[in-house]
User: What shape does this take?
Amino acid sequence: MAIRIIVDSASDYTKEEAEQAGFLFAPMGISFGEKGYWDGVNLTKEQFYHELVDEGGYPVTSQPSPKLLMDLFQSVVDAGDTAIMITMASALSGTFQTAAMIAEDYAGKIAVINSGTVSIGERMIIREAVKIAETAASLEEAADAIRERVRHLYLFGYLDQLEYLKRGGRISPAMNFLANLFSVKPIIHVCHDGLDLCKKARGKQKAWKELATLVEEMPGLEKDHLMYGYTGTSDAYVYEFMKQNTTLPASPADRIQIGSTIGTHAGPGCLAIAFFADPTDMMSEDKQG
Assistant: This one.
């Protein structure tokens, strides 16, 4: 009896990549007006950014269909296996709640884990889940160990612009105008509570310095587990940031193009870093005073 891994496309795996890794795949829905797609199935990342930026589209995302989740779960049980499904943060999508409710009908054969994150953060949890599942004595033991790793996972992102957050109604037009006027660049923390403003600085270089310092000073930072993500079609920001911060390295396999789930709200020019460190209460700038 094997423990299978099920991933959603918010992890920025495509269906092909997931299947090559041996995962079962649950795509998110993406629509641009009347044009509907399944993320990572019939919509590539390059196509997504063409629609978003070049065509000026306004995407709407939706969670994987309940019917698809039921079919995936049933295929696991029919094969005599168990499975762990890793979902994006429940604060950002209803995928976790839907999957957990459906899993109740499968008599402890399916464990659904809220990653508390998205994109490269979720991807890092999936990587840990694979290693844990290979040695765990039971599904319950594996799920508990993965949830413990979730407590150690952090994802921070630098945003080049706020236009796409404004489009999605997450900030006001006035805030977007002032940020552009004064070249304010925010750093966000993606966590169980959603998106949290962590820092802000005047200009890209100062913001990158804040981001690097934030990561470097995290207690218990596991530097051998860094992963970078970028939105848009160029990875130039990743290479530029790493050149300026040589103590925060990552292999080529750990530099990932971010897809539609984050790209919808961040737009091009986002630089993200995911890593493991000691659990701590991350507080927003407003809470810090």
